[in-house]
Each structure stands twice: as structure tokens, then as C-alpha cells.
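Protocol step 4 of 6: structure prediction from sequence.
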Amino acid sequence: MVNKKWMISTAVLGLIVLILLIITVRQHNENKYDDRYISEKLSNTVSGLSHAILENDKVLNDTLKDTKGKVVLTSLHAQMLCGNTHEIMNQMQELDHSAELLGKRRQDGNLNNVAKFTLDAELYLSRKVMNNGLLYDCTAPKSDLTLNDEQKDFLQRLQTANKEWARIVIKYIPGATNSEAWNSFWDKSRDGFVRRSWWVEMQKDFAASSGQLPLLPN
């Protein structure tokens, strides 16, 4: 009788251990899935933000290479500049939100100031440079744009801010301006991205840049 009770107790204990093992394995797999999902989403945010900044840097450099003469913003460059500025705004906010949710840092408003700057820049671009009727409309103009002094001044101010952001991107992403190095970096960095610390430091640098933002024309 005692032996039978012992066998039942052993079987029950074994069943409990098996259930706990299954739960542990399932939880481990779920955590791995969560890690992969968050890492993928977060790395896409950082790479999208970085790419938009670097592309705007090139567009602004090309457009403002000769500020003494006539400054022409091509139709394609106008659309790219507006679209990338919108992307920077969205991804800055997403990066700030992600860092807060993951407990990496608290929102201090500085990154939101950068996002607001890009929002104002996008509005100016769409309405006063590209002459689009709708708010934040980045539809390409039908022809290239010859800029007046105020518009040229606006692009120079935007360039000042964007150059600082580009400096930050290049600081954390070696060879960022080289497509092969860029692809290689992200191929190696996406896995376990959420556990890396450099993107948090990058975010801090972006937030710190809010104190250097130039005033934009109304």
C-alpha cells in the first residue's frame, strides 16, 4: 500500500516537473521571439532614422554647394528632403517612445524638441518652398525650384541641424556613408539589437542636439 502511494506520488511529481519544464521551454521560446521582434522593430527605427538623415545631408550639400549664386532645389530633391524630414520626425518620436517602454531612459522632452523642429521644417518645406496646398504634403513640384533668399536661409538652417545629426549617425555607425559598410553593419547588428547599448547613447546625443537647433522662419 505504501509502495503504491509512493509510486503515485512519484508519478504526480514527475508530471508536475514535466509541466513546469514545458512551461519553461515555452516561456523561453516566447522570450526569444519577443527579443527578435523588438530587435527587428528597433533596428528598423534606428536604420530608417539614420538613412533619412544621411540622405538629407547629401541633398542639402548638393543644393547649397554654391550659395553665392542662384540656388536651385530640384523637384526630386525637394520631394526627398520633405519625405526624409517627415521620416526623421516619426523615427525620433518612435526611438524616444521605445527607449521609455524598454526602461532605457525616461523621456525628457529634448528628443520631442528635435521632432518638433523637423515637423516645423516639413511644414515650411511643403507650404513655402514646394507651394503645396495641403499641410505636410510632400508631393514633388512639377518643375525645379529657384529659391529666394528666405528659402535659401531656411535650407541653410536645416542643413546646420542635419549636419549635427549626421555627425551623430557616423559616430555610432562606422562607414555609414558607404553602402557596403552600411549593409554589413546592419547585417551584424540586427540580431539582439535591443540588448545593445549604443543606440541608447545615440538617442542621448540626438536629445542633446536640441540645445543647438537654429530658429526656423515662420
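Step 5 (inspection) to follow. The chain has six helices and two strands.
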